[in-house]
Amino acid sequence: MTTSTTTSASQKIMKGWKMHHNSTVELVAQLPDSSGSWTPWQGGWTTLELIHHLAWTPEFFFAQIDKRDMNIPPVPATIAEARELVKQLTEATAQKLASYTEEDLQQIATININGVDITEPVEEMFHRLVAHEAHHKGQLFVYARELGVTNAPFYVDLSVK
To answer: Torsion-angle region of residue 84: left (phi > 0), alpha (psi -120 to 50) or beta?
Structure first.
């Protein structure tokens, strides 16, 4: 006898986000403490700015979906502060994502990304959030390699179920 399980949209979103985000958290933990102001090119994001961007971006989506102002924390001054910010916002993001019901995920909302209004189900917006995490996590992996990190985590956390 075979049993089948149905994975809900909210479970799929959470799994996708955690698979990428957990790897991001592990990578941030391995960055040299002295790497905060490093940038790969003049005018590029510093390591701290990139970590900050990764950490607060879920708020970008949540605020627009909820039709409220964003609450963006300041850029950390040190890698240690960045690690703490990532820890705090990881917990907050996981709680917020977990609060969305299947009905909530099917609601239609509009968000503005780079001057373009996008109207779609909230579920699709959260898939954009996961893709954003994956994209900038990849960027952070390049930073880490340039900064001498040789024991970087796997690109996703395969333990996430």
So the answer is: alpha
Q: Describe the chain by its helix, strand, coil percentages, rounded to 5.
A: 60, 5, 35
Beta bridge pairs of residue 108: 121
pTM, to two decimals: 0.91
As beta bridge partners, residue 121 has: 108
Torsion sign, CA atoms 103, 21, 85, 46:
negative
Determine whether 69 is exposed, middle or buried from the number of CB atoms within 10 Å of its CB (0-12, 13-18, 19+).
Answer: exposed
Got the DSSP string for 120-143?
EEHHHHHHHHHHHHHHHHHHHHHH
Model confidence over 97-119: pLDDT tens digits? 999 999 999 999 999 999 999 99
Q: Dihedral, CA atoms, 82, 85, 87, 90, nearest 10 degrees?
A: -120
- Cα distance between residue 122 and residue 128, in whole Å: 10
